[in-house]
Design goal:
Blueprint: H1 2-11, H2 17-24, H3 29-46, H4 54-84, E1 89-95, E2 99-105, H5 111-130, H6 135-163
Helix pairs in contact: 1-3, 3-5, 4-5, 4-6, 5-6
Amino acid sequence: MRKNITKIAFLQSFDNPIFYATLMNNKHFAKTMSTIFFHNFVQSIKTSAARKNKTILVINILSLVFNLASWLFLYFKFKQILADKSSDIVPLHYNIYLGIDLQDKWWKAFIMPFWGTIFFIFNYLLALSLFHKKSLVSYFLSAVNLFLQLTILAACIFTLLLNI
């Protein structure tokens, strides 16, 4: 019974009151609804016109390049720094009033590009799924994505300058 409802859910919309009542009587309602929502989200991304929009495409490609630059820059520079040092504790933050105020393990510097990657994926998918409703929101999400990746790249560069 559940498989039939799920198959129907992919084919029908929620505008049909009989279909909606059938779902409400289903004991796996939440799972079915989440499956329907996920399917609709994936379909909106696959069929999004934003994938053909050159402005959004260029901005997101630049964001991806800056994110990859953050990862690679940290990886290669910390590889050199750790080869010279005997300790794996490195300074990660500098304050103009106190000087170096955060020292921790070297791998914690990779938290910045990690969160940048998470935000890139989230903003990119959200921009693709919302483009057909509000294209201005997609442009804004893409621009925020680019600004965030540039900020993270600058923070990674300053973290490495602190360690030289």
